[in-house]
## 1
Amino acid sequence: KYPCARPYALNNRHKHMPEMQLYSGFQSILFTPSVAGCSRGMLVQIPMPATRLRGASLSAQGVVECWRESYRKTPAVRVVDSLADRLENGYLNPSSLAGTDHLEMTVCGDSRHLLLTALYDNLGKGAAGAAVQNLNLMLGRSPVAGLTL
């Protein structure tokens, strides 16, 4: 494909912007997508001023704990303290979860700036995985039956 990351939608207009605004409750969102030369894998990072959170004193670890509680019954989502074990030569590899159907997410930053980060295989956790989960639900099975967690 292409050897390096290539940013796009630099005018801050993207087809998913309306749904991001709807579900986040924020009208002002900075979205900077990029595509890279990997066949499977996605890294989503959202910078956010910590002051945008209710209870502005909430730390990165506080957000992680909130997510951990929210997703505790969701086996396909793993909330982790850090993605350091996913680093390869100091870099976060978007393909490190290729072949799996789960998502790993964390938050890093300080009292002023947070970076929300999600890492997943866009084929497994994306449309193909969603199709399997929907079929499982229609058949009355566990939503994660047949997925690689």
Note: The mean pLDDT is 86.
## 2
Amino acid sequence: MPFADPSPAEPELPLELERLASVALAHDASLAEVELVEVQLADAQARGVSIKGARLADVDLSGARLEHLAMTHCALSGCNLANMQARGARLEKLSIEASRLTGTVFSEATLSDVTLRGCRVDLASFGFSQLTRVDFEDCLLVQSDFLDAQLERVRFTGCELTGADFRGARMRRCEFRRSDLSELQGIAGLRGAAIEWPGIVELAGALAAELGIGVLDAD
């Protein structure tokens, strides 16, 4: 049985969605049961936006500032969320595939039942956030940070986590499988996680340093 079982719940989308060619985001705007394809929303600024029961394909939200964004039962594919700032966001029952989240800020956010597949999430920040039943599958997470984040039943499978920062993180029933954990920061933040043996070996030096164990040269 997987250590982090069960898997995140999948989003439930309405059978019929209203397709929008364009949309303007205003403070406290609400979008429901819509499909957005190739919509340009780069650098948009709006607080309290709510999106529910929606499909987003090739949508550009790069550089957007969307504090307290709420997304529920949504599917995103091929989207550009690079450098989007969504402090205090609430993301629930989302699937995000083949999308770019480089430098995205989800600090002080709540993520539950979220799956990210084949995404670039490098240099992203989940600081002080709470992640529950979140799967990162085949994602690039180089130098991403989970500073002081709470992670429960979070899985990293086939991910590149070089230089990722888990200082102050608190984990419960999390998994790391087939992932590159080199140069990881905040080894103590992995307490409560399960790691495959090759990953344990890769972390041996950092674990020894964390415990104050010196390394002797072989005679």
Note: The chain has a mean pLDDT of 94.
## 3
Amino acid sequence: MAWWQLSEAELEAIRLTLLVAFAAVAGSLPFGIGLGWLLARRDFPGKTALETALSLPLVLPPVVTGYLLLVSLGRNGWLGRYLEQWFGLRLIFTWKAAALAAAVIAFPLMVRAIRLAFAAVDPRLESTARTLGAGPLGTFAAVTLPLAWQGILAGSILSFARSLGEFGATIMIAGNIPGETRTISLYIFTLIESPGGIQEAGRMVVASILIAAAAMAAGEFMERKYHPAERREEGP
């Protein structure tokens, strides 16, 4: 097989990786926006503890995060048992578990970018909207969100890119099941463990680099498209 030709197993790993990354971003984005706004605009007891807890996945070994998810969401976990009993929902060793692991690992990057975006919004603009009769939700939707959209986009792209390469937490909570949870990183890991796998893994390494680069380029394109004037001002 030529180096540029991907097998069905490799294509399936790419499909699963994209599915997991998109699901991770889509599922965590509403929480990221809510927490980003809360941390940027409100002071409350326990704020430092919340910030510390949100940042832990950045510094903990991913396998530790995966272990915590496993003991929490397993069939006998304090949360997993109730999800299965009440809703018939079993996450462990499914692609949904891989998406959850990716979301948890990438969530701090998303929240940090969104928090900075909300902090940069001028409160006077929101106050003006209030004086014109807009309510809190209307002001948030019509003023705050549009002004913070670049940070939200940046956080989403960072989260997506980080989700593409998630490995440690994923293998703990989702396993390495072909066609179900074997993403690109797990596929590469499997190949390297087999004889001659280092050479075969080259195609998937290139594919992962191209996908990540495409995600970053798409974000840059969208920013240039919707804010061309700002880009011209930044130029020489």
Note: Confidence is low (pLDDT under 50) at residues 228-236.
## 4
Amino acid sequence: MQRVHLASLGIAMFIVAGCTERTGVLDPTPAATISAAAGGPTKVSGHFAAQVDFSTLTLTPRGKKCLLRVNGQLVFSGSIVGTAVGRTTALVFAPCSQVAITPPGTYRDVFKSELV
């Protein structure tokens, strides 16, 4: 489960870097915002907590690999306040029978998280 925590950390960094004054992270950025953003990044401070709902954890075989899925949320405080809710998916390069009994990080994996 450490892997899920690390995945959430990576996603949180992505979300913090992508936060702007627009209505949604995936919405197109207006040209005026692009020129304003060209001045450089905006400094923010604060904390976030990753909360994983382990009751939603699933392991699905994909050939010799294992697809791990789990729901959760990131709760931000400080300059950025709010909650991002979503799912993290990881393709672990090992059979699910091994993923289920070994510590996170034992096998290589590729993950993505989608949070709103």
Note: Confidence is low (pLDDT under 50) at residues 1-26.
